[in-house]
């Protein structure tokens, strides 16, 4: 995971700047950059921990005399997860379909019906979509390569979406001028759609789609190990926080407990 955090985020940002030349201000710039990418504070803190580890080893190996900066971790929020209701989902998809951006509707559909992360969605290759098996292969997922299951509704949507694409296309979200050949930024149309749906863009961000899908899986009564399999979380503990969400499923669970006691009392 340290290699992943270095390769995906730290090295691309700091490039070839020597460790001895980085300053506390540079680290603050990095934190601001990652927050603007809507990375969670816990995720950024783990990346900062990887950077701190580099300094510890550099001092131990006498590559540098001392750690020349202060790396302050971000404060984590209370763990409250913002997610969309079914009514809000309908509104946001309706506005996405009407939006001028050709990719935003598909992006939101996939996010809401799979819980995939932003870059997992944007980097989808057509050859990795298996509509018969209803899966999308993700070769560079955060917790390792995986096959992402998809709904039958999304399978039908993708079949129609792909049929309208130009012949010879290899990416679901192609961008010829992009280094990796696919769209990497979708912030502006996302924000536009959120506002059009009457929602607050400060509260509803791209990661909200993932939170929404996972939360509704839990509220539908899906067991947490299965949710973990669908969401691609590395550990079950990372999924447990979704089970704390208030919702009808909590009261339904308590009703089941009550009914079981009542049934036992009648015997």
Secondary structure: elements and pairs:
Elements: H1 2-14, H2 24-36, H3 41-60, H4 86-98, H5 104-114, H6 118-122, E1 129-130, E2 135-138, E3 146-149, H7 152-163, H8 187-196, H9 206-219, H10 224-231, H11 237-240, H12 248-265
Antiparallel strand pairs: 1-2, 2-3
Helix pairs in contact: 1-3, 4-5, 4-8, 5-7, 5-9, 9-10
What does the model show?
The chain has 267 residues and is mostly helical. It has two domains: 2-60, no CATH class; 86-248, hpI Integrase, Chain A. Helices cover 53% and strands 4% of the residues. The chain has twelve helices and three strands; from the N terminus they run H-H-H-H-H-H-E-E-E-H-H-H-H-H-H. The protein has helices spanning 2-14, 24-36, 41-60, 86-98, 104-114, 118-122, 152-163, 187-196, 206-219, 224-231, 237-240, 248-265; strands at residues 129-130, 135-138, 146-149. The protein has a three-stranded antiparallel beta sheet. A hairpin with a 4-residue loop joins strand 1 (129-130) and strand 2. Helix 1 (2-14) packs across helix 3 (41-60), helix 4 packs antiparallel against helix 5 and helix 5 packs antiparallel against helix 7. The longest helix is centred in the first third of the chain and has 20 residues, at 41-60. The chain is globular.
Helix and strand element order? HHHHHHEEEHHHHHH
Rounded to the nearest angstrom, the radius of gyration is 22 Å
How many beta strands in the DSSP annotation?
Answer: 3
Count the DSSP helices.
Answer: 12
């Amino acid at each position: 995971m340290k290699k992943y955090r270095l390769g995906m985020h730290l090295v691309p940002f700091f490039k070839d700047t020597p460790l001895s030349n980085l300053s506390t201000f540079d680290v603050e710039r990095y934190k601001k950059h990652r927050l603007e990418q809507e990375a969670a504070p816990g995720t950024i803190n783990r990346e900062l921990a990887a950077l701190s580890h580099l300094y510890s080893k550099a001092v131990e190996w006498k590559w540098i005399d001392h750690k020349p900066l202060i790396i302050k971790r971000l404060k984590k929020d209370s763990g409250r997860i913002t997610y969309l209701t079914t009514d809000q989902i309908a509104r946001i998809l309706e506005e996405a379909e009407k939006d001028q951006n050709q990719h935003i509707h598909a992006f939101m559909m996939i996010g809401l019906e799979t819980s995939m992360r932003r870059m997992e969605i944007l980097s989808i290759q057509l050859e990795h979509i298996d509509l018969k098996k209803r899966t999308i292969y993700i070769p560079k997922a955060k917790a390792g390569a995986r096959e992402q299951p998809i709904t039958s509704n999304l399978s039908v949507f993708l079949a129609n979406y792909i049929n309208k694409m130009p012949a010879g296309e290899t990416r679901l979200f192609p961008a010829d001028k992009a280094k990796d050949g696919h769209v990497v930024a979708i912030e502006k149309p996302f924000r536009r759609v959120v506002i059009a749906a009457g929602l607050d863009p400060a509260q509803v961000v791209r990661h909200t789609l993932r939170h929404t899908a996972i939360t509704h899986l839990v509220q539908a009564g899906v067991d947490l190990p299965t949710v973990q399999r669908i969401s691609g979380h590395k550990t079950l503990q990372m999924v447990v926080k979704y089970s704390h969400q208030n919702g009808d499923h909590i009261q339904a669970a308590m009703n089941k407990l009550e009914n079981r006691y009542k049934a036992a009392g009648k015997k």
